[in-house]
Amino acid sequence: MPAVGGFDKGTGREYPGNLTPFVMVTCIVAAMGGLIFGYDIGISGGVTSMKPFLEKFFPSVAEKQRNAAKNNQYCQYDSETLTLFTSSLYLAALISSLVASIVTRKFGRKLSMLFGGLLFLAGALINGFAKAVWMLILGRILLGLGIGFANQSVPLYLSEMAPYRYRGALNIGFQLSITVGILIANVLNYFFAKIKGGWGWRLSLGGAMVPALIITIGSLVLPDTPNSMIERGQHDEARKKLRRVRGVDDVNEEFNDLVAASEASKLVEHPWRNLLQRKYRPHLTIAILIPFFQQLTGINVIMFYAPVLFNTIGFGDDASLMSAVITGSVNVAATVVSIYGVDKWGRRFLFLEGGTQMLICQAIVAACIAAKFGVDGNPGDLPKWYAVVVVLFICIYVAGFAWSWGPLGWLVPSEIFPLEIRSAAQSINVSVNMFFTFVIAQVFLSMLCHMKFGLFIFFAFFVLIMSIFIYYFLPETKGIPIEEMGQVWKNHWYWSRFVGENDFVANGGLEMGKGRNAAKV
Ligand code: BGC
């Protein structure tokens, strides 16, 4: 078996540096930027399954639902305006992540996080007090603008702050807070749905103010990354900051590499146009395909619509919200596994294991739904064991995602881009992710209505393709300093044809492709 993505360990530099309390606290605070994204993902599905909310804003869906017992279950939620409510946010996020690229590059990662928090705060307020559908949509657009800024800047911030040996674990703090945000939202929905008078949805939507305040305040107290300070010409402060972050005095080697990377990036006037250069082909491909594939795992079908989906397959309202809490908890727990393993077992192992696990579960869930609902969507009586089996395999599927594509979908792109294209390429990553999140959110309910159980087979097919892609085209990036990443392409069986000997030479002095760096794997 060819070691298609392997990497000759021990090549490149080893910068001194510890996992200092300073870097830990900084990364934990920054990672909380993921809360706003997660809260939002988790809240919308629950809210759209609350009857009083539907009666107020989407009466036609409420009406359809009342008749669902008689009709086709697969189609009870199929409504364009309802999906627009969920998905409008992601279009806004797509646009703002492109603007955020400029803010992040010119003014630092912190300012983008601050914008993210403030916009999200405004959106949460409008949603909590919404009186008409337009207020709901406006609120969600503001939330989306906030998420675009946060998702563009937080992963970069984390990957730059972290000592490279712990970069995977610290970066996954972002995904962990996404999953915690989703879970908190699921739990709140469960309780708020029970509030007498049916106004619990206002608390669910308005509650987004809490994570918004956390990232807003966080961004004010966080330090800038040394990389970003150098990028903006503040060399002395950057050196001091690097010493503080790494907890050692001797940071010269890393500092010089950062300066060299920054000098190289200054020569680049048009980071966007630059991305089209041949030597950036691997980066561009990965910046597009990783987020595309992440969404095509089908995860957001579960995250957005778990309550709706469980409702569709026959669970009562309460049981549906409760099942979302169960999948949400599995999501958090399995993310912790990847924090533990990502810098030990590597990215490729997690991707491939997680992919296999998801594939098997999708096939089983499709078979279960097909067996009971067939194509007419009329299940008759559903025995309890059936519900348990479906929820169980959905949980195993979620776990597979949560230790592979979930965190790695954010980690891998944020660590592979050289500084000169980092901000622009990260925006591509975020906008592709948001675009496909939008597409899935927008079409899922009608896909469910038309493709029925085949929907799960559709996603399983993509999981197979993405696993093959990882196997052949993704090099291992574990344990490689971020400014040294160039060598992984030179050592790769396929990407080496795009990257020349003199491309991505850190500090001008490292001769990659010679001696200890020569291994082609
Ligand atoms: C994805 C989201 C998804 C979440 C689930 C994230 O990495 O980008 O789309 O809902 O993981 O935990």
Describe this structure in words.
- The protein is mainly alpha-helical.
- 72% of the residues lie in helices and 0% in strands.
- The chain has 23 helices and no strands.
- It has helices at residues 21-31, 33-48, 51-57, 59-66, 80-107, 109-128, 133-161, 167-192, 200-206, 209-221, 226-231, 235-246, 252-266, 271-274, 281-296, 299-312, 317-345, 347-373, 384-402, 405-416, 419-451, 454-473, 486-490.
- Helix 3 (51-57) crosses helix 4, helix 16 runs antiparallel to helix 17 (317-345) and helix 18 (347-373) runs antiparallel to helix 19.
- It is globular and about 70 Å long.
- 58% of the residues are buried.
- The model is unreliable at 5-11 and 507-521 (pLDDT under 50).
- Beta-D-glucopyranose (BGC) binds next to helix 8, helix 16, helix 20 and helix 21.
- Residues 41, 175, 178-179, 182, 294, 299-300, 303, 331, 406, 409-410, 433, 437 line the site of beta-D-glucopyranose.
